[in-house]
Design goal:
Layout (H helix, E strand, L loop, with lengths): L1 E6 L24 H15 L4 E4 L1 H6 L1 H10 L1 E4 L12 H19 L5 E2 L12 H8 L4 E2 L26 E3 H6 L3 H4 L4 E3 L5 E3 L2 E3 L4 H6 L2 H9 L5 E4 L16 H8 L2 H14 L5 H11 L7
Parallel strand pairs: 1-2, 1-10, 2-3, 4-5, 5-7, 6-7
Antiparallel strand pairs: 8-9
Bound molecules: zinc ion.
Length: 296
């Protein structure tokens, strides 16, 4: 059971033109401190671990917050400016990722090995992004959304990829066959968003707006039935007092604000009912399985 947070502000919405670029971002209310504090408290109280994917825009402004997170938790990059991968050239993507890695490494003094694309925007046509990530030290990716998402997604998930040859190693396969880790040393380990199959279709149920929308008993039941669970939560998913952006279309308003009030207690319950950990610990558990007679 893997828990991840995407550390971005409440106004970092991808499907609303007014907040799409960084031009207005500095004019909005700062809520990230209180919202991250809430996440840290919840982790503490439920004895959980998580990987934090942080955007460079936040790290540049609030390096102390990043240092505080990195003291106890694994961090990864969520790009510099939260732009969709498929809207960038390979060169722009490379520059953005490299700057975000350098920034986080300078602030924390720790290597950045994890990546998540904004809006899960690595589709099958953007798998080239993985080569760029690998070249720049990324070893773990969590950008594959196994359904049609608003900004990306690979319906059917990794098993539906049309051709072989990608440098991806599915973590769910590693769980079954840890020896794959030795056989594919130069691959990125992929941690896809988990889903529940209904009538042959993958339904995402335990992350972001889906987590807020789904009744908890259903989340609980489907989670128990899953051999692999990965949840993603944004700080804003638990922020019931965040302002309403003016001019937000009805559909986005629903997506952004449904279930906010109960989300915090729901997450506490989820983290109490299931033992969640971070990406590093999940990989280490597999490496330890690889050494059946280890003495240390
Ligand atoms: Zn994001």
């Amino acid at each position: 059971m893997i828990l991840t947070f995407d550390i971005e502000e409440w106004f970092h919405l991808l499907d609303f033109d007014a907040t799409r670029s960084e031009l207005q971002w500095d004019s909005y209310e700062i809520r990230i401190y209180d919202n991250v504090e809430r996440l840290l408290r919840i982790l503490d109280e439920t004895n959980s671990r998580a990987t934090f994917f942080i955007i460079g825009w936040v790290a540049q402004r609030y390096p102390d917050l990043v240092r505080k997170i990195a003291e106890r938790y694994q961090i990864g990059t969520h790009t510099m400016n939260h732009q969709l991968v498929w809207q960038q050239s390979r060169e722009d993507f490379r520059n953005d990722v490299v700057s975000s890695i350098h920034l986080l490494e300078d602030i924390t003094g720790k290597p950045v090995e994890c990546f998540r694309a904004p809006g899960f925007s690595i589709r099958e046509s953007e798998l080239w992004a993985l080569d760029i990530l690998y070249e720049n030290g990324i070893r773990y990716d969590s950008s594959i959304f196994p359904a049609k998402g608003s900004h990306g997604g690979i319906p059917g998930g990794l098993s539906n990829l049309q051709r072989e040859g990608y440098i991806l190693l599915d973590f769910r396969k590693l769980q079954q066959s840890p020896e794959l880790l030795q056989q594919h040393p130069e691959h990125i380990i992929e941690f896809p968003i988990s889903s529940h199959k209904i009538c042959g279709k993958d339904l995402v149920f335990n992350g972001g707006g889906y987590f807020r929308l789904m009744p908890y008993p259903l989340i609980q039941r489907w989670s128990k039935e899953s051999a692999y669970l990965l949840s993603y939560i944004h700080p804003r998913d638990l922020d019931a007092s965040q302002p309403m952006l003016p001019g937000l279309p009805l559909s986005r308003r629903f997506k952004s604000y449904v279930g906010l009030k109960s989300a915090e207690s729901k997450l506490r319950k989820y983290l109490s009912d299931f033992q969640f950990t971070d990406i590093r610990t999940a990989v280490e558990a597999i490496l330890n399985d690889q050494k059946p007679n280890h003495q240390e």
